[in-house]
Amino acid sequence: QVQLVESGGGLVQAGGSLRLSCAGSGSILSTNPMGWYRQAPGKQRELVAVVTSGGSTNYADSVKGRFTISRDNAKNTVYLQMNSLKPEDTAVYYCNVRKKIARVIGVVEYDYWGQGTQVTVSA
Question: What is the pLDDT of residue 49?
């Protein structure tokens, strides 16, 4: 069982910064990749950033150079530092953890999600 709770969202002006936090509980392992996704009104959910157990990161092209993802395995927490925010960054941001589950048919991946935190960037 896994639970994820996001925090740190809010209203900022363009060019400002925010740091999102995602506190996890349950059977989260240091080997489980964790990431951030976002969904703007009328749009599909999209990947923002992911960090693996080895520390490798991957970012959406739209946030490269502005956002930084990190994790604290001891606290089961993942962070998203967002700098140089733009109005187009406005969305609900969701925390994610992907776990591998062993089944008879083989190992499958399952995603757990937080409730989301609103980020609004004014022009």
Answer: 98
